Amino acid sequence: MRLSEVHIDGFGVFHDQHITGLGEGVILFTGPNESGKTTLMSFIKAILFGMEKESNRAHYPPLAGGQHGGA
After folding, report:
1. Are 39 and 13 in contact (CB under 8 A)?
2. What is the spatial distance between Cα 26 and Cα 32, in angstroms, rounded to a whole number?
3. What is the pLDDT of residues 21-33, one digit of tens each?
4. Residue 65 and residue 10 in contact, taking contact as beta carbons nearer than 8 Å
């Protein structure tokens, strides 16, 4: 499977984010602490394997608005 782009409508701190230009091979996300790396990876896992229930601690409600989810 190859991801070429990600659109986040609302997930944690992300709202209406569109990430394009993901090349072939391994993609590495880097950044300072609290910049959203784990939230982004949790979003990708949620899109691929299903959203977790609200009772789960890794729920990531949309803090900045938007519908919970994306593509």
Report:
1. yes
2. 20
3. 888 888 888 999 9
4. yes
